[in-house]
Design the sequence.
């Protein structure tokens, strides 16, 4: 019934192969971009069809096996896909947002050198991401998991002639590898632990069915889930492995929107959702996940205060929002986490694409004015753009309201549900709620700081360039408008009961999460009054953040300067991202380099090369000694023969 | 009475003379002749023992040896001529290029 599921990842793969092999010859941007977008759209159609079919179906979990892959003893691994409400939501988000971003890229990447390469990678990424979310066992998921990492590396380093871009790509890849190591360790341990109970499997459905064989809260399950969580921190940019994401902004903006905001970075959240039973079995891990998530949400938000690069602010905001999702997962609010994942995909993709539109416009203007020294991403060169770019401004503003959790916008519903669970859940704690709430206020502050600096106030752009800032073309603005619309209405599928809704989203995901929540008695409890109060407080904090940003950046524009002059050390620390990169360099990178240099100079050059060269040297010495036996005189050889014969005959006769 | 021992002794003496000649002489043709002496000493052994044992195998072998010796002489003399064309000499010590 769901046998066409394989088409969903298949279409982008075809697009990637065609563009990768023939793109250089096709040359025509419309054909290359159109093909890639069409493939994504076809994939979206198939995804929609399956989604609707699943909606009308009473059985909510379907496994579709394409072919057998590995068959060893009683271990059977298939090329299998798993469609359940969770993966259905994910494929809708990935293909839907993916299609829009492909469309956007046609306009944004116009005129770029090796245009086809970009679309080849982008389609390949979509393929890998869809394999990740549809994978029916951990190995198929791992293919996607590694594939998205690879595509992320390729796309961050898209402008590889720039040193900073290729460095950022390498950093992303290496940091992701650390996470992948955790993922693999978790998988191996889980495989062994379940196997020792007689169930050799890595199939997700079977894992969930047999998880009860492991001891609840035991060492094994905690170790497994912590390892998986390490994998999630790498892929989803959480403390301690978040440092690669802000650097990943070196990639083209559509990439930041698709990979580093909407889809790939949510893979960790998705993975926890997929293995919710295992995570729920270990309260220790859940607490770790929640704490790390809360801390990340708070910590990344602080850095967002002092960044001047428009994309970097959004990058730290992404890290912070991902922190919310992990906070939700950690307190057992699985569906709230996935809900926030979805709304975040809408508004953050819109924000990134909006920033891309701004950069595109400024780039165009600078180009027109022959200005090559100003950075089109620096917000200090912006201001007053709302009149120049009305569509970009409106969509951006709406998405900002959504991310700040202003009531009636999508972010409000998802963020508030997370905060409520953080406070009221049986696995929650008021401290987690406090961190989340403060981070919400900070989000409101730095997001409105960004909006005010970019779109309001005086225009600080180079005077020669400022009259030549155009609104972006339709291929750019259409995705913005669609995503902006989704950022407004996307939340209404999950209106909580307390606000008169029926929380259809939670109901939809119930087949995946309800059993776990029920079995481990995870639920949010508290009176309606408390819930209203919590909601009020978080809205109030957000309003305060917005107001503060307004005061500092619109009413008294010289206030930030005064503030930084008053606390220079604090400002410098925040501006330099709390020196975390430097700390990591000191603690990990440089020691690793030193070990590497030692192994190179000390071990490889001296020992390995020494042995190889030594053998050659001995052979050469022996040879140069023995060569004198080869005299060239016939008599010497004849004597040698005669002696040889005499000795051999003598041996047989007398021996 | 001449017994088989006498033949074998003669054969051994001839073989030793041939060997010594190969080892000591410098003229390639003389060395060649010495090799012929060695071969023929072996032939003598074959025939003597064939007669002694009463078996024809040894005598058949002698034909083989003679065939080989004839072929060797043909090839060898051709080589001599080739050498001589190169170096105007058939002293074996002059052909010492194949060395370190």
Sequence:
């Amino acid at each position: 019934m769901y046998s066409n599921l394989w088409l969903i990842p298949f279409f982008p793969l075809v697009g990637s192969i065609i563009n990768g092999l023939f793109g250089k010859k096709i040359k025509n941007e419309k054909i290359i971009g159109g093909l890639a977008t069409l493939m994504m759209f076809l994939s979206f159609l198939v995804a929609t069809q399956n989604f609707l079919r699943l909606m009308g179906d009473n059985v909510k979990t379907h496994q579709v096996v394409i072919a057998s892959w590995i068959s060893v003893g009683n271990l059977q691994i298939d090329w299998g896909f798993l469609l359940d409400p969770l993966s259905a939501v994910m494929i809708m988000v990935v293909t839907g947002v993916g299609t829009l971003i492909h469309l956007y890229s046609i306009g944004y990447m116009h005129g770029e050198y090796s245009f086809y390469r970009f679309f080849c990678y982008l389609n390949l990424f979509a393929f890998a991401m869809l394999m990740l979310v549809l994978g029916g066992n951990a190995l198929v998921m791992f293919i996607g998991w590694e594939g998205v990492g690879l595509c992320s590396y390729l796309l961050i380093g898209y402008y590889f002639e720039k040193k900073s871009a290729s460095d950022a790509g390498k950093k992303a890849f290496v940091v992701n590898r650390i996470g992948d190591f955790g993922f693999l360790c978790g998988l191996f341990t889980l495989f062994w632990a379940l196997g020792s109970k007689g169930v050799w499997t890595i199939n997700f459905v079977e894992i969930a069915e047999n998880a009860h064989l492991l001891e609840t809260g035991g060492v094994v399950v905690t170790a497994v889930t912590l390892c998986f969580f390490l994998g999630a921190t790498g892929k989803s940019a959480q403390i301690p492995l978040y440092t690669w994401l802000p650097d990943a902004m070196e990639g083209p903006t559509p990439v930041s929107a698709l990979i580093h905001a909407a889809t790939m970075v949510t893979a960790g959240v998705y993975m926890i959702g997929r293995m919710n039973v295992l995570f729920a079995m270990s309260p220790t891990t859940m607490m770790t996940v929640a704490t790390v998530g809360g801390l990340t949400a708070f910590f990344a938000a602080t850095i967002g205060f002092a960044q001047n690069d428009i994309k970097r602010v959004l990058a730290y905001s992404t890290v912070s929002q991902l922190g919310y999702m992990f906070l939700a997962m950690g307190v057992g609010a699985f569906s709230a986490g996935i809900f926030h994942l979805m709304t975040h995909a809408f508004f953050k993709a819109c924000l990134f694409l909006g920033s891309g539109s701004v950069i595109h416009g400024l780039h165009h203007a600078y180009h027109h004015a022959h200005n090559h020294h100003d950075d089109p991403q620096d917000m200090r060169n912006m201001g007053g753009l709302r009149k120049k770019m009305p569509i970009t401004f409106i969509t951006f503003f709406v998405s900002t309201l959504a991310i700040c959790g202003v009531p009636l916008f999508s972010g409000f519903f998802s963020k508030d549900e997370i905060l409520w669970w953080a406070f009221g859940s049986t696995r929650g704690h008021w401290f987690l709620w406090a961190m989340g709430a403060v981070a919400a206020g900070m989000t409101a502050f730095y997001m409105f700081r960004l909006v005010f600096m970019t779109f309001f106030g005086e225009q600080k752009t180079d005077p020669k360039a400022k009259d030549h800032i155009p609104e972006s073309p339709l291929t750019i603005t259409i995705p913005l408008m669609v995503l902006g619309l989704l950022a407004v209405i996307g939340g209404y599928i999950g209106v909580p009961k307390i606000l008169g809704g029926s929380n259809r989203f939670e109901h939809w995901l119930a087949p995946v999460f309800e059993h776990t929540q029920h079995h481990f008695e995870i639920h949010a409890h508290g009176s309606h009054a408390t819930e209203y109060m919590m909601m009020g407080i978080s809205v109030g904090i957000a309003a305060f953040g917005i107001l503060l940003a307004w005061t500092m950046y619109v009413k008294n524009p010289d206030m930030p300067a005064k503030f930084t002059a008053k606390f220079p050390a604090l400002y410098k620390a925040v501006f330099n991202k709390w020196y975390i990169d430097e700390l990591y360099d000191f603690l990990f990178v440089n020691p690793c380099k030193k070990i590497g240099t030692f192994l190179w100079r000390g071990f490889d050059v001296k020992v390995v090369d020494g042995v190889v060269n030594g053998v050659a040297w001995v052979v050469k010495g022996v040879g140069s000694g023995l060569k004198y036996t080869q005299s060239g005189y016939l008599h010497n050889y004849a004597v040698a023969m005669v002696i040889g014969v005499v000795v051999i005959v003598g041996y047989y006769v007398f021996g | 009475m001449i017994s088989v021992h006498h033949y074998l002794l003669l054969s051994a003496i001839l073989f030793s003379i041939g060997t010594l000649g190969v080892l000591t002489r410098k003229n390639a043709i003389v060395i060649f002749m010495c090799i012929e002496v060695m071969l023929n000493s072996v032939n003598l052994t074959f025939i003597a023992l064939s007669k002694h044992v009463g078996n024809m195998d040894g005598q058949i072998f002698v034909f083989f040896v003679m065939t080989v010796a004839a072929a060797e002489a043909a090839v060898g003399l051709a080589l001599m001529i080739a050498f001589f064309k190169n170096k105007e000499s058939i002293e074996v010590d002059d052909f010492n290029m194949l060395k370190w």
Remarks:
- Chain B touches chain A through 13 residues (CB under 8 Å).
